[in-house]
Specification:
The protein has two domains: about 35 residues, no CATH class; about 40 residues, no CATH class. Helices cover about 50% and strands about 10% of the residues. It contains three helices and four strands, in the order E-H-H-E-H-E-E. The strands form two sheets. A two-stranded antiparallel ribbon has the order 1-2. Strands 3-4 form a two-stranded antiparallel sheet. Helix 1 packs across helix 2 and helix 2 crosses helix 3. The longest helix has 23 residues. The radius of gyration is 17 Å and the shape is elongated.
Length: about 100
């Protein structure tokens, strides 16, 4: 069953995570694995992802009764992939044809 949305697309995404939480997780990862991500990289990535999702949601929500599939399709399209009605995603090459 397709889930429809009109005004509140936030329910289609994972819960929003604050920067403080991401940084705390990063410190925990460092303690456990000695691996970490630079704090400014976390902030930059978070900003880019938030902007990208807002742009896509705005485009999808302008459609009447868009579904989760419409959102997934638009996200795939924005990163140069095609998604068919069975949710199969394939890359689009430079010649506008799909590759297997």
């Amino acid at each position: 069953m397709q889930r429809h949305f009109e005004h509140d697309a936030s329910s289609l995404f994972l819960e929003h995570v604050e920067s403080k939480t991401l940084l705390r997780r990063n410190v925990q990862r460092f303690i456990q694995t000695s691996k970490y991500i630079l704090a400014n990289s976390i902030e930059a990535s978070k900003g880019s992802v938030d902007s990208f999702l807002k742009y896509v949601v705005k485009n999808v929500i302008s459609r009447n009764k868009a579904t989760q599939w419409d959102l997934d399709y638009e996200l795939a399209k924005r990163i140069h992939f095609e998604m068919n009605s069975q949710n199969k995603v394939t890359p689009i090459d430079n010649n506008n044809t799909t590759t297997p």
